[in-house]
Amino acid sequence: MIESLLLNLGSRDVLSAEEEGHLRAIIVKDRYFVAGEDLVSEGSRPGYSTLLLDGFAARYKVMADGSRQITALHVAGDFVDLHAFPIKKMDHGIVALSSCHVAFADHGDLKAITERMPHLTRLLWLDTLVDGAIHREWIVAMGRRSKRAHIAHLVCELFVRLQVVKRTRGASFQFPLTQIEMADVLGVSVVHLNKTLQALRREGVFIWENRTITIVDWERLQEIAEFDPGYLSISREPR
């Protein structure tokens, strides 16, 4: 059930048979969510952390005027709230953007890992550090990149992350977000988003249709985005 997590962690270091077996033993409960349903609610104090097995989910904050800002996108293999274990109270919500299959790791079991399995602890810690690195890239994109470069960077990032967990098909991947949800990611109006997407279509770097993104010119897309995947720490080395 947790193959996507094993692929994610295994892209950064080698898991021992004991570590893999322990993860399989503690992540056993699962559940399905429909699009629009909260996986984790803001203000809650969950006693478990949620692993996304399949689907797309997003971290978000809602403003007083009802507008929403999406602050992260999650794909298969992501622990969407591993940080809830030490933080306790959630300061944001996590919503399903598509049908989502998730599993849960009890915080008591995670605590036992930190006390008994130092290498696995470091790999799970790294998972939250990569979340932080992605947040930094998103802040840079929001504040300093053009919206054209911002969209290109997001497409590059998702393609690499989904490749790791074997959710791409050639140069294509499923992308179930609506344009309204995409505008919430970028912090722009739907009109602005449409104009920028049209410009990228004219450049012929990727196609977004039928909830699928197909990359046509990977080299040019990376050039527009100034994309360097180093921040994703996808290199297998001792941790």
End-to-end separation:
25 Å
Number of strands: 11
Largest sheet: 4 strands, antiparallel
Give the fraction of residues assigned to helices.
40-55%
* Run of helices and strands: HHEEEEEHEEHHHEEHHEEH
Low-pLDDT runs? none
Figure out the total of helices.
Answer: 9
Radius of gyration: 18 Å
Assembly annotation: single chain
Structural class: alpha+beta
**Spatial ordering of strands, largest sheet:** 2-6-4-5
What is the 3D form? globular
Task: Report mean pLDDT, rounded to a whole number.
Answer: 94
Strand content: 15-25%
Keywords: DNA-binding, Transcription, Transcription regulation
Protein name: Crp/Fnr family transcriptional regulator
Domain HTH crp-type: 145-219
Pfam family, one: HTH_Crp_2
Short description:
This protein has 239 residues and is an alpha+beta fold. The chain is built from nine helices and eleven strands. Helix 6 (147-164) packs across helix 8.
Question: How would you describe the overall organization of this protein?
Answer:
- Strands 2-6-4-5 form a four-stranded antiparallel β-sheet.
- The mean pLDDT is 94.
- 45% of the residues lie in helices and 23% in strands.
- The chain starts with a helix and ends in a 14-residue tail after the last helix.
- Helix 6 (147-164) packs across helix 8, helix 6 crosses helix 9 and helix 7 crosses helix 8.
- It has helices spanning 3-10, 17-26, 84-87, 107-116, 118-144, 147-164, 179-186, 190-203, 218-225, and strands at residues 27-33, 38-40, 48-54, 57-62, 68-74, 93-96, 100-106, 168-169, 172-174, 206-209, 212-215.
- The chain has 239 residues and is α+β, with helices and mostly antiparallel strands.
- Keywords: DNA-binding, Transcription, Transcription regulation.
- This is Crp/Fnr family transcriptional regulator.
- InterPro entries: cNMP-bd_dom, cNMP-bd_dom_sf, HTH_CRP, RmlC-like_jellyroll, WH-like_DNA-bd_sf, WH_DNA-bd_sf.
